[in-house]
Amino acid sequence: ARSLGRNELSMHKGKEEAKAESFGKLVVDRLAIMLDVAVSKIFPAGFGWQSASVVAGNLGFAGNSLPFFVCTGFGDFAGVLIGHTGFKALYSAVGYDVNLKKEAQTGLLLGSAAFFSGFAWQPILNTCNALNMGFSESAFWVCTGCTLAFYAGLRVFRTVYGSAMDMEGVEAPSYANLKADWGLSISIGGATGAFVGTDVSFGAGNWLRPLVGIEDGTPDLVGSVIAGSSTALGFCAFQTIQSVSVPKGKCWVD
What is the pTM (predicted TM-score) of this model? Predict the structure, then answer.
């Protein structure tokens, strides 16, 4: 049966499945796509955000200022666009059949949506701090807010790139990709929630600190690698749950 929840990253990309497959095989395929997305887009997004925050700080932008939010949003955008397009170019170089023009447009869509969530991350966390929330509560609200921000970005830029500009690599808004975009956005939210774990100011309450905390004195490049690892960790955690629990044809990777 045709999936009602597909987007540009789905394994079948709008084609009918050639044959029936067991749910176990489906889960393996889903996890393979999850890892591909984590390496090519989610890690670069966290790396790009953290690197942009360093640049913003060196330029004198405060962490509660609009220029800082724009810089970090652009870092997210650049990480996703460059990561997606770069990996697809690598696949093409080793012999895979890849339409690089379409993939660059898909990367533009995903990167543009990532600008929304990357822009929103710091002001949401700032608000949580102002309300004296603990780590887990802050991570929850960052996850929720950035899920909505990324989803809004996908829907807005589908209209711009897919409908208004008629890019072949971007589907226009539809019921199928509306559901797929929501599933993807939930896992992106997991990435942004885990990214809160890099903030060591929560002290002992930050139970992700031993894994992804960026401690004082950490070199900038190492901090960016840790940041990318945190987003990949959160994305994989949320996507694994989707991969093993969502029925066949209902998950965004199908």
Answer: 0.93
